[in-house]
Design the sequence.
């Protein structure tokens, strides 16, 4: 079913990548199935930000699962938000938690979890996990599907 959504600044418009996560505007749209318990997933296998110490790029595979309430996260704004980290300095933990909290603040989900699966730098991979709320009862929540880092072993 097609529904006309108005008031969005980025979807359907030319939108440059914001200069920083602070400047990025996440947007939301009404959930046409509010009141139905389900899980939506965003996967970003090529997330990048900069190490705040060395300035070198850090790479992660992010997986965001959430149980929407009244609102859905608008995907183009989310893509631009993630891209805004490319020139931003953040430790792995800070980037992962900041992304999760920004989504929670905007869409007020019943539940959200984010897994930040970071590629090794200096020989150490750092995976970061954060959860908000309690998963709705009876909802199928699949594994995030990202294997722990094993190197050559």
Sequence:
């Amino acid at each position: 079913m097609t529904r006309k959504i108005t008031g969005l600044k980025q979807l359907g418009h030319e939108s440059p990548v914001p200069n920083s996560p602070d400047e990025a505007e996440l947007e939301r749209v009404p959930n046409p199935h509010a009141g139905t318990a389900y899980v939506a997933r965003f996967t970003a296998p090529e997330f990048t930000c900069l190490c705040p110490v060395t300035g070198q790029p850090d790479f992660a595979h992010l997986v965001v699962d959430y149980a929407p309430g009244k609102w859905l996260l608008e995907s183009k704004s989310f893509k631009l938000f993630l891209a805004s980290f490319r020139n931003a300095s953040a430790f792995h933990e800070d980037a992962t938690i900041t992304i999760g909290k920004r989504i929670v603040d905007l869409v007020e989900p019943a539940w959200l979890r984010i897994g930040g699966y970071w590629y090794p730098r200096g020989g150490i991979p750092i995976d970061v996990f954060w959860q908000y709320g309690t998963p709705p009862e009876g909802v199928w929540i699949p594994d995030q599907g990202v294997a722990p880092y094993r190197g050559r072993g």
Q: What stands out?
A: The beta strands are 28-30, 40-50, 57-67, 71-73, 111-118, 127-133.
